[in-house]
Write a structure and sequence with these properties.
The complex is a heterodimer of chains A (about 140) and B (about 600). Chain A has about 140 residues and is mainly α. Chain A has helices at about 5-20, 40-55, 55-60, 70-80, 80-90, 110-115, 115-125, and strands spanning about 35, 40, 90-95, 100-105, 135-140. In chain A, the strands form 2 sheets. A 3-stranded mixed sheet of chain A has the order 1-2-5. In chain A, strands 3-4 form a two-stranded antiparallel ribbon. In chain A, helix 1 crosses helix 5 (about 80-90) and helix 4 (about 70-80) crosses helix 7. Chain B is mostly beta strands and about 600 residues long. Chain B is built from 6 helices and 40 strands. Chain B is globular, with a radius of gyration of 22 Å. The chains are: A mainly alpha (about 140), B mainly beta (about 600).
Chain lengths: ~140, ~600
């Protein structure tokens, strides 16, 4: 997916968020990742790398959270893919007396934008318990 | 008595001390204050960054009688680095974002004399590399100086908290942030910048103490007029020559080359030199930035008045591990190989303890202060260049390759948590990390204000070991570790050394520990409300000695270890080490003050 596509998708998502006040339902049959004997497909591997590059700084190793950012292997148990994309692209602010959590907008970040599906696949595999901690190997390598 | 009158009465002592400064420079006042036992007027204890106190009521015999005497919640949850200042009867401390400053009345169990909270755009929060930490305020000329997250340097009246002036140091929209403690030198306030994970070109800037006007600004990378290098600037005893930085970067990469200056600054008044280190070159992917990337990873010695560099020394040319060179520069007159030396001692992230002649930048010694360091065999004492082991060099192994088993991890054998030096024992007391890593670099794009990292890594304890940290005593005379206390987690707290023969530090699981400085024997410990990444200070009030430390787990330690470390890919680590820090401690900023029973 290129950046332009992604931005278009981001604005569509924003419109969708306005139209639907309730939860967005979708068919989610196919897994976004392949894990075989602890090894992953190439896209999920890319997701692991770019997670480490862009997300680990706050969300901790292997998606497990830090002292201040949520554990994404938990979050993705209930968060839809749309909500995930929307959060990554637009960011999130939760600043008040008790909390000072801010996630930046990654909408203009080429490396995140072009790997959004891959990062989701990696985290979903972690969240589903299909993939363990650490650096995975690629199937067939 | 009105509340205003009470406030005036409570601060009389501060006023008297402030007036001592009179017409003399802020320097003279600070030197006097840092020599007054019982005060803690400079973030690192004194200009030499020794974190040492002459106080000895708390000593090898009495430490067992310590107990907490009062506590103070900052109301802020995230990582609390740094520590309090004590000037007269007032304690000053700052918090992580939103960077509150409190002046606490020591005559009244820490009642709040005044507090200050800047208005900052919360968008700065996610561009702070490793939590929203702040490493403390500085004092000078009756003012308290705060370096805010958004890089604003603000001068507050020490008695009222009123803003005297403020100045913006850099731009958080491109990823520049403020985390470090300022240092007052002469009539200037010196401050560095954070942003190595966002490609921010690092600099240290001296501001006029009265109005915040720039006196000088020196960059870590770029043309000579930005570096403030001249014909007399040397490295390893030789002039560095023209364009010493530009020659070591491809094209314009230096403009987004990092070398940020987020650590501690030291000052030698007799040489009139300030000392500090620069951080990692950006990105973390070495294959994307060929060359030595000067002067990232460098110790700088600069003329305090002009900022011109007298000497420089690059510890880790062409970094491939994120071994920032920002750790504190401890200035000590100490025996090195049996000869008394005006030394600068620096425990670098890269695992080597460097001993330099601080007058001319001559390299005297560079030894590993953690035996597991493996990325280099040794430092060539003629060239000053580390002898890199190719197997552990991600740049040699190439992009898109996972280089395994590198020690230390990117956190370094030690991070910003400052060591202490005792002129009595001539020992350095060093809080260390004992962690290794796998590191895979890959190509990344630069967008202003977005992370510019280019590597993914996983961290684990060294083969066969389960402790992730040690608190060590290091002897520069022999270049050897004198004793080492293993800790379950990295020791991420600044140490204290005293004339009482004790050293003190905090642990990530929240304990304040006091040990015998001769052998590391534990004399006292107490579990504070949260993990400690703050620095232990000491002071006296009404003739009694106290220890003070901030709890509040977070910082990089809170990122890497909240979930426990990864099992390393080679299966080398010990199982016991995967205990998650989150099973031991939770967030919460609290100051705890310890005293002796009567």
């Amino acid at each position: 997916m290129n950046l332009e596509n992604l931005l278009r998708r981001a604005s569509l998502l924003a419109v969708a968020a306005l139209l639907f006040s309730g939860p967005v339902c979708r068919a989610d049959d196919a897994k976004p990742y392949t894990v075989k004997d602890g090894k992953v497909d190439e896209n999920t591997m890319k997701g692991y790398l770019y997670y480490g590059d862009q997300c680990m700084r706050c969300h901790g190793p292997d998606g497990l959270g830090s002292s201040y950012a949520p554990n994404l292997t938990d979050s993705l148990k209930t968060m839809s893919k749309q909500k995930f994309e929307e959060t990554v692209i637009n960011g999130k602010k939760d600043v008040n007396q008790a909390s000072d959590k801010v996630m930046p907008s990654f909408g203009l970040n080429v490396d995140v934008a072009t790997n959004l599906d891959n990062i989701y696949a990696y985290l979903k595999a972690r969240s589903d318990g299909a993939l363990g901690r650490g650096h995975p190997d690629v199937i067939g390598e | 008595m009105t509340s205003k009158m009470r406030l005036l009465a409570a601060t009389t002592c501060v006023a008297a001390i402030t007036m001592l400064g009179g017409q003399a420079s802020a320097n003279d006042e600070l030197i006097k204050l840092s020599k007054t036992p019982g005060q803690w007027a400079i973030p690192s204890g004194n200009y030499a960054s020794q974190r040492y106190s002459d106080l000895k009521q708390i000593n090898v015999n009495t430490a067992k009688n310590l107990h907490p005497v009062w506590t103070f919640s900052t109301g802020v949850l995230r990582g609390h680095e740094g520590g309090p200042l004590v000037i007269g009867d007032t304690m000053y401390l700052s918090t992580p974002f939103p960077n509150k400053v409190f002046a606490l009345d020591l005559n009244n169990n820490g009642r709040i004399l005044w507090s200050y909270e800047p208005k900052q755009d919360p968008n700065v929060i996610p561009v702070m590399c490793c939590d929203t930490v702040n490493r403390g305020v500085a004092y000078g000329n009756g003012k308290i100086f705060l370096h805010q997250a958004d890089t604003t340097l603000v001068a507050l009246d020490a008695q009222t908290g009123k803003v005297a002036w403020s100045v913006k140091d850099d731009d958080p929209a491109k990823g520049a942030t403020g985390t470090s403690a300022p240092l007052v030198v002469k009539n200037m306030v010196l401050v560095g910048v954070s942003g190595g994970e966002f490609g921010v070109q690092g600099h240290v800037t001296a501001y006029n103490i009265d109005d915040g006007k720039v006196v000088w600004r020196a960059y870590s990378e770029g043309p000579d007029n930005q570096l403030l290098f001249d014909a007399n600037t040397t490295s390893m005893g030789k002039p560095v020559g023209a364009d010493s930085s530009l020659k070591t970067w491809q094209g314009d990469q230096w403009k987004i080359g990092g070398g940020d200056t987020w650590g501690w600054i030291s000052y030698d008044p007799s040489l009139n030199l300030v000392y500090y280190g620069s951080g990692n070159p950006s990105t973390w992917n070495p294959t994307q930035r060929p060359g030595d990337n000067k002067w990232s990873m460098t110790i700088f010695a600069r003329d305090a008045d002009t900022g011109v560099a007298k000497w420089v020394y690059q510890m880790t040319p062409h970094d491939q591990w994120d071994y920032d060179g920002v750790n504190e520069m401890i200035l000590a007159d100490v025996p090195v190989h049996g000869r008394m030396t005006k030394a600068l001692v620096h425990f670098d992230r890269n695992g080597f303890a460097y001993v330099m002649d601080r007058t001319d930048g001559k390299l005297l010694e560079a030894q590993k202060y953690d035996p597991r360091v493996n990325w280099a065999t040794h430092v060539d004492m003629t060239t000053g260049v580390p002898q890199v082991v190719s197997q552990y060099a991600p740049g040699d192994q190439g992009a898109d390759h996972n280089t395994k088993g590198i020690c230390p991890a990117a956190l370094g054998s030690k991070d910003e948590q400052p060591a202490a030096y005792s002129p009595v024992t001539h020992m350095f007391y060093v809080p260390t990390n004992h962690v290794c890593m796998d590191y895979e670099p890959f190509k990344v794009s630069y967008t202003a204000g977005q992370p510019y990292v280019g590597a993914t890594l996983s961290m684990f304890p060294p083969e066969g070991e389960s402790n992730l940290g040690n608190f060590i005593a290091y002897d520069v005379n022999t270049g050897k570790i004198a004793w080492s206390d293993p800790e379950m987690f990295s020791v991420w707290s600044g140490a204290l050394a005293t004339a009482g023969g004790v050293a003190a530090y905090g642990t990530l699981d929240g304990k304040l520990k006091v040990v015998d400085d001769r052998n590391g024997r534990l004399l006292y410990d107490f579990k504070t409300p949260s993990g400690i990444i703050g620095n232990v200070n000491t002071y006296t009030h009404n003739g009694k000695q106290y220890l003070a430390v901030l709890s509040g787990v977070g910082g990089w330690a809170g990122i890497g270890m909240a979930a426990g470390l990864t099992e390393d890919t080679a299966g080398l680590g010990a199982v016991g080490a995967y205990k998650a820090l989150s099973n031991y401690t939770q967030l919460g900023g609290v100051l705890t003050v310890f005293g002796l029973s009567n």
